[in-house]
Amino acid sequence: MKQTDARVRYTKMIIQQSFLSLLRIKPCVKITVTELCQKAEINRATFYNHYLDIPDLMERMEEELLEKFRSVVSDVPFSYKTFMLDLLHYIHENVDRIAVLTSENGNPGLMAHAFMLSTENAYPLFELIPLHISEPLRPLIYNFICHGTGGLLTTWITEGLKQSPEEINHMILTLCETALSIYKEK
Fold first, then answer.
1. For residues 112 and 157, what is the distance between their CA atoms, to the nearest angstrom?
2. Could you give the angle at the alpha carbon of 75 between the alpha carbons of 71 and 76, nearest 5°?
3. How far is CA 120 from the centre of its chain?
């Protein structure tokens, strides 16, 4: 049984690595199953044993990334500062895969989406911050912070992680605190 599991994991890994290799040079919508199978040195039946088509492969790889982001925040008692730093270290360690999936050829909005999903734990804490705004505006400010952070992370990744996770963490926290300070009750 374990041998079969190892073979399945290996096959999926080869398919995904080949897909990422192709995604580096062309948009997802231009990648064909035939081309991917040639790159992975597998037959089409093997591909179809694991995936419905190329969009299914992309969707599953995105979901895997989103699940890993969720697991980063669920592994520790929640603190926004440690959550961000853990997330930044995860990105730093997996930058090759993440950079390709979030590129123009992949899904440029994936990082903002991942950040929104992985910070679902943060919204209850966000609601506790005493802000001088009406309730319908809270989600708008929260979305602004999430999407702004997602955009910053996307740029950090696409520019090659020139800053350390600690520097980016400091920048994100400073920008978020500054944005919130405008609405904090005095």
1. 12
2. 135
3. 14
Tokens 């350390």 belong to which residue? 164
Domains, the chain, with CATH or none: 2-51 (1.10.10), 60-181 (1.10.357.10)
pLDDT in tens, the chain (186 residues): 455 688 999 999 999 999 999 999 999 999 999 999 999 999 999 999 999 999 999 999 999 988 887 777 665 555 667 778 888 898 899 898 998 998 889 998 887 777 676 666 666 666 667 777 777 888 788 888 878 888 898 889 888 999 999 999 999 989 988 888 887 765
Give 107's DSSP letter.
-
Task: State both tokens at 110.
Answer: 């994936």
129 vs 137: CA distance, rounded Å: 13
